[in-house]
Amino acid sequence: MGSNDSDWCNYKQLVLSLHNDEECVRFLQEKGILHTNRVCKGGRDMKLRFRKNGNIYWICQFVECIQYVGVRKDTWIYPSRLPLIDIILFIYGWCYEWTSIKWCERELNISRKAVVDWNNYLREVCSLKLLHSSKKIGGDNTTVEIYESLFNPRKYNLGKTQSQQWVIGGICRETKEVFLHLIPDRKKETVLPIVEECVLPGTKIYTDEHKAYEEIYKLGYDHHTVNHSQNFVDPTIGAHTQIERWWRSSKERTKGQCRTRRDMLDSYMTEYLWRQSLHGKEPFAEILKDIATFYPPK
Ligand SMILES: [Zn+2]
């Protein structure tokens, strides 16, 4: 689809390539999000069928078998009933931060509840990507901002019983490299070894005023604090932090989602870190790859 990267396409090209359900299914198959083939319990290849009413399913045509299964079953998009075209365009819109409730209602006819859900699904992909790509960041003459956040895994291959989970994440201002770790609690004994593991000595570190960080200077870091609950402006130097800049840009898009500032920071942090870690790569191609990696069809 144009450009050097075969995965690259703009919004117009995307819309023009998706006339009907067949094309949407093919698109999601090519991206590794839907099955490209399924086998019935009798071991026979199933065929994909498209109904006029919008139902799409795999069927075994063997007379004595006649098993069928919905195209979405055991995939990332299950059990959503959103039309496939809406899902694809939503993902595209999300990449460019268009997916405010207003935009989704007007352009895609997606309900408010579905917008919140789908924003969460994509944020979850971001979290998984970051949790699997943690490496040491920072070093001399660099600044790393550290945040804690709640992570709510909900989708199928994480298991339904898992409850809320704290994560600790950091971003290097200069290189935009990030790390993210799951933590059982926010105690000093838990968070300090992770910082030591993920951030190079000599780094200037910004954290919130959480007590656990009080002795972080002993590990060889230049420690500063920011009061996130009141503002995101560094009181010591008056400079805006990364998260403040991001907060301002996303305020408009999240209007009407009825959440407090602190909640927003919690649920949006990993999305923000994921975006920062792209280093100019095409977000649409990257998020599709990440979905296929972490939620392959089962
Ligand atoms: Zn069969």
From TrEMBL:
Pfam families: DDE_Tnp_IS1595
Sequence ranges assigned to domain ISXO2-like transposase in this UniProt record: 136-277
PANTHER family in the record: DDE_TNP_IS1595 DOMAIN-CONTAINING PROTEIN, SI:DKEY-17M8.2
Protein name: ISXO2-like transposase domain-containing protein
